[in-house]
Amino acid sequence: MTSRLFAICFYATRPPELARFWSGLLGWEPDGGPDDGVAILPPDARGFRIRFLPGPQPGPGRNRAHFDLTSDSPEHQRRTVARALELGGEHLDVGQLPEEGHVVLADPDGNEFCVIEAGNKFLADTGSIGALACDGTRAVGYFWSEALRWPLVWDQDEETAIQSPDGGTKITWGGPPVAPKTGVNRLYFELELPAGADGEAELDRLVSLGATRAEEGDDDRVTMLDPDGNEFSVRRAR
Fold this sequence. Notes:
Blueprint: E1 4-12, H1 15-26, E2 29-31, E3 38-41, E4 49-54, E5 65-69, H2 74-86, E6 90-91, E7 103-106, E8 112-115, E9 129-134, H3 138-148, E10 152-156, E11 159-163, E12 170-173, E13 187-192, H4 199-209, E14 212-216, E15 221-225, E16 231-235
Parallel strand pairs: 1-4, 5-8, 9-12, 13-16
Antiparallel strand pairs: 1-13, 2-3, 3-4, 5-9, 6-7, 7-8, 10-11, 11-12, 14-15, 15-16
Keywords: Dioxygenase, Oxidoreductase
Domain VOC: 4-118
GO molecular function: dioxygenase activity
């Protein structure tokens, strides 16, 4: 029985404030459940929640993953950018060219994200979060396709992308060159075991695919590393 993608987690200096930013920008409802800390919930069951956990100050360099938000029209893109700035975001210069249509921003904790221009065919029908764009190898894209049992929807020039069979947000990996990892990632995947599943069997399956056990948690969570050394956690269903 395969684990499902339960949440994308952010380490944050001020989790409640960052949750308010993303809730206000995406229009997702907050969840105050004691098991989930500070989280916001997707608009439908096919999505993942976003969790915000206490963590260290941002380190040097950019995150290994960022959200690409979609736009239905040029006006929609302008409204999304304006709303992000109103909520405490800021413009970010990562070397983008003036003729590029997407807008690069940072949330109040410095996490990069993009607001993609209307008409992007690759992100069509994905929802407000079109993609979680990751820095990573082709091998790690293959790993996550097998780990989540999500089909590959792109595999070209060492770039890969996967998407749930139910649709929704795509997860992409840009291929080489992959920047060296410095410290613990500020964004990571949290998987959840199905109720009644054999947890050890699932952990062994993930190891057989290329994951490494990092440490045992104290609340039914296990921290693991994917083939690119990115942390992810596996938790039991509650």
